[in-house]
């Protein structure tokens, strides 16, 4: 652990989620107003009307997801627990740590986190995006919002993407093994890795997300040592444009047609349970699996504040503190451009 007597502020970034059914539409409006999500010629004129149209339509479609998980997203609760656990772990290791949560599209917003950071009178800052893999639509968007709002004269470090961190990988392996233990034979079920999809147009521009997701799956398979057959798919597509495929629903139908009867779904791009895991996978996908003949469907739980994951985050913060301070974060921070074959595979 890097020893420091300075007060360190750690900002945990997440997308956020509506905490009530009434908050769904304004949450989605904030999301679709993001220039890192919706960008096109003359977007400054048309982005807000388009965001209003999409959010009102989309809110009606996803309301049942939130209703089935209690009427709102638990992501704020889980992220704040992660922040408190990380703060305690870092202090145990000798760091005067103060953790703050910055949600991109719902409370507490990045501006609120900055206010708390200033009130704590921190001497230096570590930015910790809770997205294991880099995408301009997640890490990039969160850091862009930070740049727009934070201009204080403080040393700022930024954690790199952490999908290769061995402690993080072991935390996922632990959750997968717990899910596999619920099958009569742990080597029988198909392991289905499911990641949040992104538009193919984003990948075509060089976003490394797809490559990093595929590498994550390979690293997990190596560390897990599972003999099970495995597959990778994507979920949460929005709109009519082309997104990364195959979809989770298509994968479930295909595997059933191939004779698969036991399935363990592993959310591979998320670090906490929220609507994509609890609603889309554990409710909607589970129901689909039952309809198409899957006899046992299990989902590995989110990392949330598991001790192994919190230890991984502490290590990631420590590594960031050991890096040279940058007074101005570069706009491609954390980005490793996709290799040509990934860009070509994205098509039009």
Structure report:
This protein is α/β, with parallel strands linked by helices and 348 residues long. The protein has twelve helices and eight strands. The longest helix is centred in the N-terminal third of the chain and has 26 residues, at 43-68. The chain starts with 6 loop residues before the first strand and ends with a helix.
Concise structural overview:
This protein is α/β, with parallel strands linked by helices and 348 residues long.
- Work out the helicity level: 40-55%
Write the element-wise H/E pattern from the N-terminal end onward. Answer: EHHHEHEHEHEHHEHEHEHH
Unreliable spans: 327-348
Mean pLDDT: 91
Could you say which overall geometry the principal axes of the C-alpha atoms support?
A: globular
Strand residue content: 5-15%
| Structural class category | alpha/beta
| Total number of beta strands | 8
Layout of helices and strands:
Blueprint (H helix, E strand, L loop, with lengths): L6 E8 L9 H9 L10 H26 L6 H18 L3 E8 L6 H10 L4 E6 L9 H11 L6 E3 L7 H15 L9 E7 L3 H5 L4 H16 L5 E6 L12 H10 L4 E6 L7 H17 L4 E4 L7 H15 L18 H6 L3
Parallel strand pairs: 1-2, 1-3, 3-4, 5-6, 5-7, 7-8
């Amino acid at each position: 652990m890097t020893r420091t007597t300075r007060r360190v502020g750690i900002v945990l970034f997440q997308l956020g989620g509506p905490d009530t059914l009434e908050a769904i539409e304004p949450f989605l409006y904030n999301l679709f107003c993001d220039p890192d999500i919706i960008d096109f010629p003359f977007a400054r004129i048309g982005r807000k009307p388009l965001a209003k149209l999409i959010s009102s339509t989309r809110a009606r479609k996803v309301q049942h997801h939130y209703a089935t998980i209690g009427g709102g997203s638990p992501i704020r609760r889980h992220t704040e627990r992660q922040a408190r656990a990380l703060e305690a772990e870092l202090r145990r290791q000798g760091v005067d740590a103060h953790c703050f949560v910055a949600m991109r599209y719902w409370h507490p917003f990045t501006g609120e986190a900055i206010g708390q950071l200033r009130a704590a009178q921190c001497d230096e800052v570590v930015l910790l995006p809770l997205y294991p893999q880099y995408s301009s639509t997640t890490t990039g968007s969160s850091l862009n919002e930070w740049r727009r709002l934070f201009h204080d004269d403080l040393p700022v470090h930024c954690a790199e993407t952490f999908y290769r961190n061995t402690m993080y990988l072991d935390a996922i392996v632990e959750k997968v093994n717990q899910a596999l233990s619920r099958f009569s034979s742990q080597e029988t079920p198909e392991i289905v890795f499911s990641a949040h999809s992104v538009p193919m147009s984003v990948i075509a521009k060089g976003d490394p997300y797809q490559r990093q997701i595929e590498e994550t799956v390979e690293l997990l398979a190596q560390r897990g040592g599972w003999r099970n057959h495995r597959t990778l798919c994507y979920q949460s597509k929005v709109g009519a444009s082309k997104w990364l495929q195959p979809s989770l629903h298509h994968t479930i139908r295909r595997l059933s047609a191939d004779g698969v009867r036991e399935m363990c779904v592993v959310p591979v791009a998320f670090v906490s349970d929220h609507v994509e895991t609890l609603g889309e996978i554990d409710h909607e996908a589970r129901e689909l699996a039952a309809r198409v003949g899957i006899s046992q469907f299990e989902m590995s739980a989110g990392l949330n504040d598991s001790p192994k994951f919190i230890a991984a985050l502490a290590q990631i913060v420590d590594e960031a503190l050991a890096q040279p301070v940058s007074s101005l974060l570069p706009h491609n921070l954390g980005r490793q451009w996709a290799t040509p074959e990934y860009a070509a595979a994205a098509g039009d």
